[in-house]
Amino acid sequence: MRRELVAAFGAEQVAPFFGGQTAKVVVVGQAPGGTSVQLRPWSNASGKTLRERWLQLSEAEFYDPENIYLTAIGMYFPGKDARGNDCKPDSALAEVWLRQELTYLRPQLYLVVGRMAADFFFPRRDFAELVGANQTINDVPALVLPHPSPLNAKWLKDHPEFSEERLPALRTALREALLL
Length: 180
Fold this sequence. Notes:
Radius of gyration: 15 Å
Distance between the termini: 31 Å
Number of strands: 5
Shape: globular
Helix content: 40-55%
Number of helices: 9
Low-confidence stretches: none
Strand content: 5-15%
Order of helices and strands: HEHHHEHEHHEEHH
Strand order of the largest sheet: 2-1-3-5-4
Oligomer: single chain
Structural class: alpha/beta
């Protein structure tokens, strides 16, 4: 499948996928950032927040292909709009590629990171409610997280229950899935 995406978009634009087919946790983000396309997924400041602060995983644990499989609803960096914000990833593309990709995986847990990724799996649902309650994808437990970007500081401030209640529950579910 990766070869087909490279042919469709060009190697410099295709999101890096990371992880093994038997990974216990699948992290589905929105789309790779501009620098993450050239490096590995979640290798920027948002990734550090996700890995170290929220999940409390070492870099080795997070990038262990037996532990974590990383993908995104946007298969390439969608660019910036006139105001400098990231453009939305193409959800029609995700319907084809991501749905196919997920059929090859058998995780114990899904982590859905960001509102755009949440909208893909749970359309027309209130984001704060999705973050605050357990979900499922393909009959597998799924936890929705806000995007760990510094641009989300207001959402995090307005929803202190995420840090106080959901992060401890997330870490417990993650440790159980990874058997750490």
